[in-house]
Design goal:
Radius of gyration of chain B: 21 Å
Radius of gyration of chain C: 25 Å
Number of strands of chain B: 13
Largest sheet of chain C: none
Largest sheet of chain B: 8 strands, mixed
Helix content of chain B: 25-40%
CATH class of chain C: Mainly Alpha
Chains: A mainly alpha (322), B alpha/beta (402), C mainly alpha (295)
Number of strands of chain C: 0
Strand content of chain C: under 5%
Structural class of chain B: alpha/beta
Order of helices and strands of chain C: HHHHHHHHHHHHH
Helix content of chain C: over 70%
Oligomer: heterotrimer
């Protein structure tokens, strides 16, 4: 009955080196964890410590609410970029959320089972396309395509609502918002899809048995149950939208001021850093850009943290990265 | 950021080679091509090197062709990029040294040169005092003007019968955002007979630290008090420079980006180097200069503006709003910027020799590449000073050029 | 609304026509949404093929960009090799570290694991430009120059969270009985991980790696301040290195040199094909291992 391996196993239990090996193992694991986490934290602290002169010069609220960004005058303020980030993300979310949730519903509740994975994979492919390609296509194809539409809106509603007024040079908050929305649709859709797919079959079938349509099923079962999951998906999409850099910088028009309309050119936190960092050599310019990075990081951590919280409350953990 | 000492740098390179069969290696004697007294044509002709003649400094020009590490790294101006690209290729053919040039804008070039991540910087704006101070730990700079070019006001309008004529006030008005439509009365007044549409004017400017911006805004500062007040808050050092606070318009990166921006927006207008406008068939404006003449940007008008009676000793000058009656008012200069004592910043004397040899070639035979690309070449009156500047480059006190 | 309430209500039976109409509208909206998502995909594909396919040839992969940027011909060998080198090194760093962190999470657990997981989550949410700034300060300033190594480190930071999350979730799914079995046998812990848990989770981990790589290959922002780019071919990672996304970013809008722009468009086409290929491969592996899952 006692085979060689089992004998060896029992022997291992009592053998000190075995226990020591386990302990070494755990120690090594801790070691690696420390080796990774500590430099990362150190890296962050070190980089951001460079921003101290900026806070000293302008004060934290002064910098964050400063409306003017003029390196030649050594005046730096983050507000135009915070505004740009928020506005672009808002436009992106307004477009992406309904589209993505509808697509998720389509896949889980409307499509016949055979078509589901094909459609799902196709939508997911949108997420794989690199940001630089989106920027390229966005600038060369989408922006000219949107321009007549922008002009139509600007010359009609725009006369009354300054927020939608012209002129419409093309690259703008709006263009960036549209491009980013396309980029985050697959993320929100994929996560929502998982949430909807997790709806208990029993409840679904019960509604059908009672004579309900697909819409009834969705309305009464899928959406209510999936609500917090979809919320988590939305927040993760938002996090991605906030951090999007390259595609935005190619279509937003690069104007470091608060544009009066969504059709004005602007800047986001991420895109101004990409644009100006490599040659910032005015006084305090590099430090101010890193300070913008810090602001972006804070916003990003807050949004991501929100997503994690929502995900944890929605036990079952279907949230995924990328 | 701290000033760094490393040699190998981070530059992007453009060169490699395509052969233009020309001179053989070292020892060849040639003269600087085209003095302005020779009659250059404005049309894109191929200017070939003239037959060997004595240089103005009296001695024959020899090329040592030091190899160094086989590669030189530079960064900066997008203005000069087409020309440096060609020069590097020709020099590689001649001397077997590759030129790695990174076209990231004059601001970027100065920064990398300051940080010693490149061998030389190229900028269309000479160094400010603060920049010289920032680089002081590495040494004293030497700025060598190598070429001149026109910054044109290019625009995107279809179906015009003639180029638009602009006075300085019109140019300033457009870039201040005060003139917002192409059929504004001010523009129409100067251009009777040209059918100007009611299109919105869409300004495109540089978003990166740009020598081209410096040239353009120096011009605007010189011709428009309104510009100085609005953009500089009354301070001319703030309304002119590599970066300014633009009142209007969208930003693009590099001459390339601005060209793209103009090209794809109907009614777009921006300032770019002449070569970029010509290569992309973008029309550009005829500007009224100080003497009151309307000048078409061209090789001739650039030369007229660049040919000064004398140049300052430190070779820092600007040609904007030139007095020359046939000179183009927005003419710019590009300087190659190096440290005077290369022993403090370069890894080996060989590399320093290679660098100096390249610059020496660039101000002599290299000038032959300028005209076909619509850049102006170094006038005789400047050459002696340029040569002196290159000869002042040394290795721990010992001059690098014999 | 609870089931019983629903059952009790008249609504399900009486207003069937309006409900069916709403059902219709929903279906139409959902299909429309799909079209909205798929049209850009097709448009991008057509755009890339139209602009890029004429540049792609064998020469495209075997030669470097010509020195005179306006010359046609030449290729992007330096960019392809650069991308391979940096992504390869990044993956070599990120995979062992990532799996180890996931193992750490499983094995040690508790607050330490939560802390590590938190840091990984923060890294995951970091905008890639911020990653670029960090690595710039950490590597470029310290070494004094831009380099392929810096680029690789930046990409490793990008890949790490994806791998950690994938490995972690898969290890979490390990059957408890197997775990208990290894303990009953007295297997050394590291042995159990190495010989049992990880191999079982392998296909999922491989999927995670493929997804991480496909993301890293397409990243531009972290490379702008680290690898910088280089128009020459180099195998020396201590020099600035070219990468495909960088080449696209710097050249695709190059109005001065149409030949350079064409090469960049070709690069974009090739890059997207590679990224999509990796992505699909990852999904296919995942699906083969877990047929019931939609992933």
């Amino acid at each position: 009955m006692t085979t060689g391996s089992q004998a060896r196993g029992v022997h291992t239990l009592r053998r000190l080196p075995g226990l020591n090996q386990d302990r070494w193992f755990r120690l090594a694991l801790r070691g690696v964890a420390v080796l990774v986490v500590v430099p990362v934290l150190w890296m962050m602290v070190d980089t951001f410590s460079e921003t101290v002169p900026v806070w000293e010069r302008f004060g934290i609220p002064g910098f964050v609410t400063g409306m003017r960004w003029a390196p030649s005058f050594v005046v730096y303020g983050a507000l135009p970029f915070i505004y740009g980030t928020l506005l672009t993300s808002a436009i992106a979310m307004l477009i992406a959320v309904p589209v993505a949730v509808l697509i998720a519903l389509l896949i889980t509740d409307i499509l016949p089972p055979r078509a589901r994975s094909t459609v799902a994979v196709t939508v997911d492919l949108l997420a794989a396309i690199p940001s630089v390609v989106y920027g390229l296509w966005g600038l060369l194809v989408l922006v000219p395509f949107l321009r007549p539409f922008e002009q139509a809106v600007a010359s009609t509603i725009g006369r009354v609502v300054p927020f939608l007024a012209g002129p419409t040079p093309g690259p703008s908050y709006f263009a960036a918002g549209v491009v980013v929305s396309i980029m985050i649709i697959p993320i929100i859709a994929a996560l929502s899809r998982e949430v909807f797919a997790a709806t208990p079959r029993l409840q679904r079938e019960a509604i059908r048995a009672l004579g309900g349509t697909r819409w009834d099923v969705i309305r009464t079962v899928v959406l209510p149950i999936g609500r917090s999951g979809v919320l988590a998906a939305i927040v993760l999409g938002l996090a991605r939208a906030i951090g999007e850099t390259i595609a935005v910088t190619m279509v937003i028009g690069n104007a470091p001021k608060i544009g009066g309309s969504i059709f004005s050119p602007g800047f986001t936190l991420a895109s101004v850093i990409a644009n100006e960092f490599n040659e910032a050599n005015q006084e305090l310019h590099p430090e101010a850009l890193i300070a913008l990075g810090l602001v972006l990081l804070v916003i990003s951590v807050l949004v991501n943290g929100l997503a994690i919280l929502i995900r944890q409350r929605f036990a079952g953990g279907v949230g995924r990265v990328a | 950021m701290t000033i760094l000492r490393s040699k190998r740098l981070g530059a992007m390179a453009l060169m490699a080679t395509i052969f233009v069969g020309a001179c053989s290696g070292g020892g060849a004697t040639t003269a600087p091509s085209e003095a302005p007294s020779a009659a250059p044509s404005a049309a894109p002709s191929t200017e070939t090197s003239s037959a060997p003649e004595a240089t103005t400094s009296g001695a024959a020009v020899t090329y040592r062709c030091s190899k160094g590490d086989g590669q030189l790294n530079g960064a900066g101006s997008t203005f000069i990029f087409p020309l440096l690209s060609k020069m590097g290729e020709d020099y590689n053919t001649k001397c077997g040294v590759k030129l790695n040039y990174q076209s990231i804008g004059s601001g970027g070039g100065i920064k990398q040169w300051t940080n010693n991540t490149v061998d030389f910087g190229a900028s269309d704006a000479f160094l400010k005092d603060s920049e010289i101070q920032a680089a002081a730990a590495n040494g004293e700079p030497v700025e060598i003007p190598v070429t001149f070019g026109a910054v044109v006001v290019a625009y995107n309008l279809q179906g015009l019968s003639a180029p638009i004529q602009m006075t300085p006030d019109i140019v300033a008005g457009i870039f201040l955002g005060k003139i917002t439509k192409w059929n504004d009365p001010a523009i129409v007044a100067q251009n009777s007979g040209v059918n100007l549409p009611a299109t919105d004017i869409s300004v495109v400017h540089r978003s990166d630290g740009s020598g081209t911006t410096s040239i353009f805004t120096t011009y605007l500062t010189a011709v428009s008090q309104d510009w100085v007040t609005t953009v500089g808050a009354g301070d001319p050092t703030k309304s002119a420079g590599k970066e300014v606070e633009w009142p209007t318009g969208l930003g693009a990166s590099g001459n390339e980006g601005v060209t793209q921006g103009i090209n794809q927006t109907d009614g777009g207008v921006g300032y770019i180097e002449l070569a970029y406008a010509l290569k992309n068939n973008i029309p550009f404006a005829t500007l009224q200069n100080k003497a009151g003449n309307f000048i078409v940007p061209s090789l001739d008008s650039v030369k007229a503006a660049a040919d000064l009676a004398s140049y300052p000793g430190d070779l820092r000058f600007d040609l904007a709003n030139t007095d020359s009656p046939q000179g183009y008012p927005i003419t710019g200069t590009t300087w190659i910027i190096v440290y005077k004592d290369l022993s403090k910043v370069l890894k080996s004397q060989d590399r320093a020799n290679a660098l100096v040899d390249f610059i020496w070639w660039a101000i002599h035979d290299g000038q032959a590449d300028a005209a076909p690309l619509f850049y102006g070449s170094i006038p005789d009156s400047l050459l002696a000073q340029d040569e002196a500047a290159v000869k002042s480059l040394n290795w721990g006190g010992t001059p690098l050029l014999p | 609304m609870s089931l019983s309430a629903l059952a009790a209500s008249d609504r399900l039976r009486s207003t069937s026509r309006s409900r069916r109409a709403k059902d219709r509208i929903l279906a139409i909206c959902a299909w429309a949404a799909l079209v909205v998502a798929v049209v850009p995909l097709l448009a991008i594909a057509i755009f890339l093929i139209g602009q890029g396919v004429r540049s792609v040839s064998t020469e495209f992969f075997t030669s470097d960009p010509p020195g005179d940027l306006s010359a046609t011909g030449g290729g992007i060998r330096n960019a392809v090799v650069g991308t391979l080198m940096m992504t390869g090194l990044a993956t070599l760093i990120a995979v062992p570290v990532g799996i180890t962190l996931a193992v750490f999470s499983r094995e040690i657990g508790g607050r330490a694991a939560s802390a590590v997981r938190f840091v990984v989550d923060v890294l995951a949410g970091l905008p890639s430009i911020v990653v670029g700034i960090f690595v710039y300060s950490l590597v470029v300033v310290a070494t004094g120059h831009f380099s392929g190594y810096a680029g690789a480190v930046a990409l490793a930071v990008i890949e790490l969270p994806v791998i950690v999350v994938a490995a972690d979730e898969l290890l979490r799914l390990t059957d408890r009985r197997i775990d208990e079995g290894t303990r009953a046998l007295g297997m050394l812990r590291w042995r159990s991980f190495l010989s049992v848990f990880i191999p079982t989770a392998l296909s999922g981990i491989i999927t995670g790696i493929l997804l991480a790589v496909s993301r890293a290959i397409g990243e531009t922002a972290p490379l702008i301040f680290t690898a910088l780019g280089n128009n020459f071919f180099t195998l020396d990672m201590n020099e600035p290195v070219q990468a495909m996304p960088l080449l696209i970013y710097r050249n695709a809008l190059n109005s001065a040199f149409p030949a350079a722009r064409d090469r960049a468009m070709g690069t974009a086409l090739v890059l997207v094909i590679i990224v999509l290929g990796l992505n699909l491969m990852g999904r296919w592996i995942a699906r083969r291992a877990r047929p019931a899952d939609q992933r």
